Amino acid sequence: MAAAYVPLESHEMVVLEHWGAGVVVAPHVAATNAHNFNLVAPDAVLAASQDYDLLFFHTDKEDPAPTADARAGQAIIAYGQGADKDLREAEGTIIATDVRVAARCGRCREQKAISYNADAGPGFSGGPLVDAKTGAVVGLTFGYRDVRGVNAGRRMFAYSMDTVLAEMHRLLSQNGPKN
Q1: I want to staple 49 with a disulfide (CB 3.0 to 4.6 A). Which of 54, 145, 146, 176 is the partner?
Q2: Rounded CA gap, 118 and 67, in Å?
Q3: Residue 88's beta-bridge partner residues?
Q4: Is 152 in the same domain as 87?
Q5: What is the tens place of the pLDDT at every residue in 89-147?
Q6: For residues 40 and 110, which has the higher predicted lDDT (pLDDT)?
Q7: Claim to verify: residue 50 and residue 82 sit in the same structural domain
Q8: 20 burial class (0-12, 13-18, 19+ CB within 10 angstroms)?
Q9: Cα–Cα dist 88/94, whole Å
Q10: Could you give the strand order of the β-sheet that contains 45-48, starting from the edge strand earlier in sequence?
């Protein structure tokens, strides 16, 4: 996983620092969230999705992470970037693999997501969601919601790797990758 993880950070001002993550999904292509656009050099951007919170960008890294399907009950580790440039990990469990999340814009489609419990949050955007046993990437984190009441805790959301890879192939075949 270490070879395919891409830390993202921006230091716009001392007070306004931001962190996120990405993961290599094809040779020289990494994926993160479109809301992390300010963490990626503009000339590295290959494509941004209009339908999903996904952004694909050029990386010098060649080896994509192995991928697998997510399944309910699966033990996972979410990876993200910390304020001290440290790799952060959050262990958890997948709750469901077909959760519906409201569309991110008026013309966007409803989002189908993996839902998982983990003590993660800011800095995990765009980071890989990994099967704790095999190390295969099963998703790409895009958001979270704090849940109150009986099932209190942090509910995280990720796109399946099928969704990420299908969108990458669709966009890069339309736009052609930059060299």
Answers
A1: 54
A2: 20
A3: 80
A4: yes
A5: 999 999 999 999 877 666 667 789 999 999 887 889 999 999 999 999 999 999 887 77
A6: 40
A7: no
A8: buried
A9: 18
A10: 5-11, 17-26, 29-32, 55-58, 45-48
